[in-house]
Amino acid sequence: MDPLIIAGRSFHSRLLVGTGKFASNAAMVSAMEGSGAEIVTVALRRVDIDNPADSMLSHIDRNRYLLLPNTSGARDAEEAVRLARLARAAGCEPWVKLEITPDPYYLLPDPVETLKAAEILVKEGFIVLPYINADPVLAKRLQEVGTATVMPLGAPIGSNRGLRTRDLIAIIIEQAIVPVIVDAGLGAPSHAAEAMEMGADAVLVNTALAVSANPGGMGIAFKKGVEAGREAYLAGLGRQQDRAEASSPLTGFLGD
Ligand SMILES: CC(=O)[C@@H](O)[C@H](O)COP(=O)(O)O
């Protein structure tokens, strides 16, 4: 028993998945199933959130998955807040993955607008999960405002480049008082395992699943990566050092 707890809610899985870029709804569902995820994020701009018969939403069993609406595509705080309010008005739970990415080339999150929107949404009673640069100062400020998690990026969205921000994520983890979910750029199960070995509480993956020739199989692989990384973190990894140290020493054992 090692639940992930976000805003008082308990989850078995530490892998969250996104729903963009899949070749078909069937591929998306097989990735979700393979991954064992319990939280699935959906871009509010891509769905008709008011309509349960929406072609994508109708494939997500809301008894099984927590639907986490995201504000992907928002370019400023005002737009993100408006999207979050629309989702709540449409009957979604008041959870929102806050994404504000004004620059279409790198899709890096805007820290000023993200903090501004988080302040407003937290005050309005939303459970806010903000996507951020791996910036320890911003992460702290967001936690002070009352966000439920922080979600630093490993690398730009869709880049599959892994934990390029590793050193900064380590500081965020060290200082965090809410779960740290590494989001974006994780292109292989080993990237997810690495984040979990460092002590991240969870990871979010989308592109790596969606572009795989076998999204269900890749979902399973990421699930295993996340679980292995978490187990290793809990078990305690050996320290790294520069010099060699014999694993079969010839002295210092059996009474020598
Ligand atoms: C912020 C954002 O949009 C991410 O959640 C993204 O969906 C996941 O990143 P990858 O697509 O790189 O896995």
Provide an overview of this structure.
α4 links the parallel β7 and β8 (151-152). The chain has helices at 25-35, 77-89, 111-123, 136-145, 166-175, 189-197, 207-210, 215-235; strands at residues 4-6, 9-11, 15-18, 39-43, 66-70, 95-98, 127-132, 151-152, 181-183, 202-205. The model has no long low-confidence stretch (mean pLDDT 94). The chain is built from 8 helices and 10 strands. The strands form 3 sheets. Strands 5-4-3-10-9 form a 5-stranded parallel β-sheet. A 3-stranded parallel β-sheet has the order 6-7-8. A two-stranded antiparallel ribbon has the order 1-2. It is of the alpha/beta class and 256 residues long. The chain has a single domain, classed as Alpha-Beta Barrel (TIM Barrel). Helices cover 36% and strands 15% of the residues. The protein is globular and about 75 Å long. 1-deoxy-D-xylulose-5-phosphate (DXP) is lined by residues 18, 20, 72, 99, 131, 157-158, 183-186, 204-208. This is Thiazole synthase. Pfam families: ThiG (PF05690). It is found in: Cytoplasm. One of its GO terms (molecular function) is thiazole synthase activity. Residues 6-249 form the Thiazole synthase ThiG domain.
